[in-house]
Amino acid sequence: MEIMTDQGFRKTIKYLRAFIIISLIGMICMLILFAGVLGYAKILGPPPLAVPQSTLFFADNGTLIGESNSGQKRYWVNMKDISPDLVNATVSVEDKNFYHHHGFDFKRIAGAVVADVQAFAKVQGASTITQQYARNLFLEHDKTWKRKLTEAFYTIRLEMNYSKKNILEGYLNTIYYGNGAYGVEAASQYYFGKKASQLTLAEASMLAGIPKGPGIYSPLANMEKAKTRQAIILKTMVENGYISKKTAEAAARAPLRLEGVHTTQKVKVAPYFQDAVRNALKNQLHLDDRTIALGGLKVYTTLNIKQQEAAERQIKEKVASSSEIQVGLVAMDPKTGDVKAMVGGRDYEKSPFNRAVQAIRQPGSTIKPLLYYAALEHGFTPSSTMRSEYTTFHFDNGQADYTPHNFNNKYANGEITLAQALAVSDNIFAVKTHLFLGEDTLIETAKKFGLSTKMAEVPSLALGTSGVRMIDMANAYSMLANGGKQVHPELITKVEDYNGNVIFEKDEHHERVLNAARAYVMTQMLTGVFDSKLNGYAKVTGSTVIKNITRPYAGKSGSTETDSWMIGYSPQLVTAVWAGYDVGKPIEMVAEKTYAKKIWANFMEDALKGKPVKAFKAPKEGVIGLYVDPDNGKLATKDCPVRRFTYFVKGTEPNEYCTDHLKNAPHDNKKNAEEKKVPWYKKIMPWE
Question: What protein family is recorded (predicted)?
Answer without folding.
Answer: In the C-terminal section; belongs to the transpeptidase family. In the N-terminal section; belongs to the glycosyltransferase 51 family.
